[in-house]
């Protein structure tokens, strides 16, 4: 889940509280939105410098060990284990919640679940580890590396979606009573999708209709549904024409950026170290080659792996990274794969510039190339031909070969298909002339005209017969002005020919005029409507560019695809109330104020009460022993030799992070006081 999705469902009360956070005032005053602030590394670095010790420690624990997976209080305490007490962890988390760095969700029984948004996590990796990608990818970029395609042909998810849309336009996507595509359609659609299933198997994607759909079909249908390129309606998956228009208006690079963002929400690994590897890979733009081993080495160097890896564990982690992320990305066309024929190392690089998810396409990404119309009616289509041009080509020509340079074939049958879908011979020739690099051969243009000339001279039409009882009734009907639009032709003195779709409105007119026409179930009425729809499945897309006035939806519905969400947090209620100190210390009113205010020497029995209260509240003690101040997180109290002793973690002097275990008898220290983080910890 990202910030855009959170803001879309955020209660107004919570948004107002977050906007009131003083640290954001300078930017909000200049008109910058919260969503922009939370993903701006410069702003977040400033915020980071203003965090207190517990907030900073909790933030680093989340970024290092949890990532953007949902977590509860117990998981956070394990991640932040060390010098912080339980109360400090809670107060640190509360500070992050008040700043919108982390969000809280309510489960069914009132338990809290927390989440750092995906784009927020990416921003914080940049802030906390700015030098993480430095020096990566130098070795594999040498001339000794030879490019070897990871898979045959042209693996590319955007192309698979395009050809699936063409299939839907050509044949329709009817659904069975169970809500799935028919087996014959599935088989044909599967032939259009070139994605290699083997690359998806290690991911174990969970999706609806898993007993019917293969993983690659489920992925393609999921993407189409989430982007609203197809819409489930009337037991059929229909084209979302406006969304198709907008999507195909984007250059291939922009389409791939969009699809990568969707893929990431569906398949991002749960382990924090793998998420860091994903983000590190994203920070490598500009054609940099990198290996899985290099990514792991950088994570290890910055402490983002649990410990120094042994050779066996390193090999296992490398395998996870390859199978759960790098290899699927190569199979989907997001990464290009290269291997060293001597050493056997495999390197990867992006096939496009990641950029910002919804930024407009740059000039160098624009697709304004043309195709070549050959004398033998073949059309050669290079990779820089725009999506809308390819769409129209698929309507009027048949795809013969799909590769970097695709081949289409004009034929009498393909021209007839275009005519049936609302195109004219003049429009077909004009389209070819506008986009052909070297013009259209004369005989090709003449052939299109000859093929199209007979079209429309004879037409099969669904029609109905309106029979009157006698000539007088027929003459009365001819005088009804309201009936004239529906009467096609008078066949004889008492029979009329009418269109199938006009039966119901004409019956209403006759009823109003005092007749009682019988109107039994007429299959032709529905058949006529179906035929009209099926003959115009291949919609015309707008010729002008639409990217400047239309925008792809930046928030994907969490439940509109086939693939199930990686976690359930998207379906939980966002907690509008931000935590206060009373939530962390419900028994605060029962504590003597002197314990919090005074730094003094107490009686042994009172000392024991204070230590036990600190353990109960999972808080901190400030203790002075032999002239040195200590910060102690007590763990337990034990009776020993007529007295008692305290065991816990302690920091002394100016130390901030290096804690050591202490075990002191009751008489070993002098002054003390109880510290409640967030209440009296300004010392």
Chain-wise SSE layout:
Elements: H1 3-9, H2 12-19, H3 25-28, H4 34-38, H5 41-49, H6 53-65, H7 73-79, H8 86-98, E1 103-106, E2 112-115, H9 118-128, E3 146-147, H10 157-171, E4 173-174, H11 183-192, H12 215-226, E5 230-232, E6 236-239, H13 241-249, H14 252-267, H15 272-282, E7 290-291, H16 292-301, H17 311-331, E8 335-339, E9 346-350, E10 372-373, E11 378-381, H18 387-396, E12 398-401, E13 406-409, H19 412-420, H20 425-435, H21 442-452, E14 463-467, H22 471-478, E15 487-490, E16 495-499, H23 503-512, H24 523-534, E17 573-574, H25 581-584, H26 593-597, E18 600-601, H27 604-616, E19 620-625, E20 628-640, E21 643-652, E22 660-665, E23 671-675
Antiparallel strand pairs: 1-2, 1-17, 3-8, 4-6, 5-6, 7-9, 8-9, 10-11, 11-13, 12-13, 14-16, 15-16, 18-23, 19-20, 19-23, 20-21, 21-22
Helix pairs in contact: 5-9, 6-8, 10-12, 19-21, 20-21
Short description:
Keywords: ATP-binding, Helicase, Hydrolase, Nucleotide-binding. InterPro entries: XPB/Ssl2_N (IPR032830). 40% of the residues lie in helices and 15% in strands.
Major sheet: arrangement of strands: 18-23-19-20-21-22
Secondary structural class: alpha+beta
Poorly predicted segments: 149-153, 526-535
Please indicate the percent range of residues in DSSP E strands (runs of 2 or more): 15-25%
Gap from first CA to last CA: 38 Å
Largest sheet: 6 strands, antiparallel
Number of strands: 23
Fraction of residues in H or I helices: 40-55%
Total count of helical runs of at least 4 residues: 27
Outline: elongated
Average pLDDT figure? 85
Rg calculated over all Cα atoms: 35 Å
InterPro entries: XPB/Ssl2_N
Protein name: Helicase-associated domain-containing protein
Domain Helicase XPB/Ssl2 N-terminal: 372-486
Keywords: ATP-binding, Helicase, Hydrolase, Nucleotide-binding
